Amino acid sequence: MKTAAILAIILMLTFAGSVFAQTQTPQVDAREKNQQERIKEGVKSGELTGGETRRLEAEQGKIKADEMNAKADGKVTPAERRHIKREQNRASRHIYKKKHNARERGN
Q1: pLDDT number for residue 31
Q2: Which of 69, 58, 54 is nearest to 105 (CA)?
Q3: Pair 91, 56: CB distance under 8 Å
Q4: What gap in Å lies between CA 17 and CA 25, rounded to an integer?
Q5: Residue 69 CB: number of other CB atoms within 10 A?
Q6: 31: which residues sit within 8 A by CB, 6+ positions away?
Q7: Rounded mean pLDDT of the chain?
Q8: 98 within 8 A of 42, measured Cβ to Cβ
Q9: Where are the alpha helices (DSSP H) in the chain?
Q10: Cβ distance 41 to 92 under 8 Å?
Q11: Nearest residue to 67 via CA among 15, 30, 96
C-alpha cells in the first residue's frame, strides 16, 4: 500500500514538472531583459529620442503580450516560440537602427 502511494506521488510530481516546463521561456526572457537594457542605455546616452523610446517600448510590450498569450494554454509550441523569436529579432534590429541614426535627444 505504501509503495502504491509513493508511486502515485512520484507520478503526480513528474506530470506537474513536465507541465511547468512547457511554459518556461528562458531564452525569450533573457533576450527581453537584454533588449530592455539596450533601450535603457540608449535613453541614458541620448541616442534615443522620446518618440523612438516610446515606439521601442511599445514593441517590447507587444512581444511580452504575445509571450503571455502563448503561455495561456499551458504549452508554448515550437511555432509560438519561432514567432516570438522572429519578433525579438525584428525588435533587436529596430533598437540598433534607432540607436545609430543621426537623431539625438535634445539636451
Answers
A1: 96
A2: 54
A3: yes
A4: 15
A5: 12
A6: 88, 92
A7: 88
A8: yes
A9: 2-22, 26-45, 50-72, 78-99
A10: no
A11: 30
| Burial of residue 50, with CB atoms counted within 10 A of its CB: 0-12 exposed, 13-18 middle, 19 or more buried | exposed
Name, in order, each residue with C-beta under 8 angstroms of 42's C-beta and a sequence gap of 6 or more. Answer: 48, 52, 53, 95, 98, 99
The residue whose grid cell reads 513528474 is: 14
Q: Is the pTM of this model over 0.85?
A: no
Give the pLDDT means over successive 10-residue stretches in the chain (107 positions).
72 61 84 96 95 96 96 94 97 97 75
Specify the residue for cell string 531564452: 27
